[in-house]
Amino acid sequence: MASTLDFIEVKGIKIPFIYEEDKRLPIVSMQLVFTGSGSVDEGKHAGLARLSAKMMNEGSLKRGSVGFADALDARAIGLSATAGNETFVIETGSLKEEFDTGLSLLSELLSEPNLTSKTLEKVKTITLSEIARKEADFDTVASNELKAVLFEGTPMATPNIGTKESIGSIGLDDVKKFTATHLVLSNALIVIGGDIGKETAKEKVIGLLGSLQAGKAGSQRHYEPRKKPKESILKRPQTEQAYLYFGSPFAMKEGDPEFFKARVAMFILGSSGFGSRLMEEVRVKRGLAYSAYSRLSVAKTNTYFSGYLQTKIESQNEAKATVESVIDTFVREGASQSELDQARKFLLGSEPLRVETLSQRLGRTFGEYYAGKPLGSSLQELESIRTLTLAELNDFIKRHGEIRDLSYAIVTK
Description:
It is built from 16 helices and 11 strands. It is of the alpha+beta class. The strands form 2 sheets. It has a 6-stranded mixed sheet with strand order 1-2-6-3-5-4, sandwiched between helices. The protein has a 5-stranded mixed sheet with strand order 7-11-8-10-9, with helices on both faces. A hairpin with a 4-residue loop joins strand 9 and strand 10 (about 305-310). Helix 1 packs across helix 7 (about 170-180) and helix 9 (about 260-270) packs across helix 12. The radius of gyration is 23 Å and the shape is globular.
């Protein structure tokens, strides 16, 4: 059984409708996704999208936070809002017989969220405490600093939780304006599945969305990472080890037909754990770190290569030199046939684990649509991996020498 893409029309606006029926359990789950509504679209108030999502989790004005939570708990209904870089998502799930109640509560939330000064102060206090805790997590500190280095001068440079200063500056009108502007039909997309028929699901969703304004679709944004390497060193007397985070540009955008080659190359270089080039050189051969990892992020708003490791303070220069050597050798010499065979075996063999649940299948279909790919392109990608030759892979790797232009964020003594 596979997820399908269709469209529904509300107030003259065509809204993507991703659906899959699954009767194995008497449950229904739905995601109301608002595209172009994440942290890169929050203007001067960093953290506004995530804070607005937290405000939506405080229930409706009619019931208040506790009353709304009690109404959900009484029927074992899950309902929560989250905000990422690019999207704002409200998700609900319940037993089949309680789905109508869940939709009714969601409609109440959308129509009259608990956006009050008291709720805002509560959410701001919680957010500020989270930011304070993260300041003692040096992995988070280094990761955030790497983003600040790579995407300096753009919304990507600030963590989506915001900063103490930006959260302090957010007022109730800012939250009301953000939700009113972004939670609109022109940004909406539905992902729904479970023990519910397609036409029934459409009818219920159309009824739910009728309370939303048509609005204006959010604009597409893309931010290029730094091309000229830069290093930022943060001194923290409390740390007992060095945290090395590194990143560089990668010439690819979402929907690129060569993405399958990038998956294989990145698996070999650093995303496969034991057996990857980075792990072998950094841990196994030199004992510089417990783990070393790298990955490629490809999204609508950004594309970049990144990685990290932790090492002894006195070993940070050696670890840094080793990372650079591994990446340089990988670009110059490419992968071996054995590495390609192992990567192919894992990526193809683990495929059933990536589509075994309803949420995974719905998520894959959403990902294909959101990236502008035809439905079923993930299967074609697997076939491309199956037939990928070593010459094709190494040609791709050598064409992406920009990953050697590494910038660093290092937390050390």
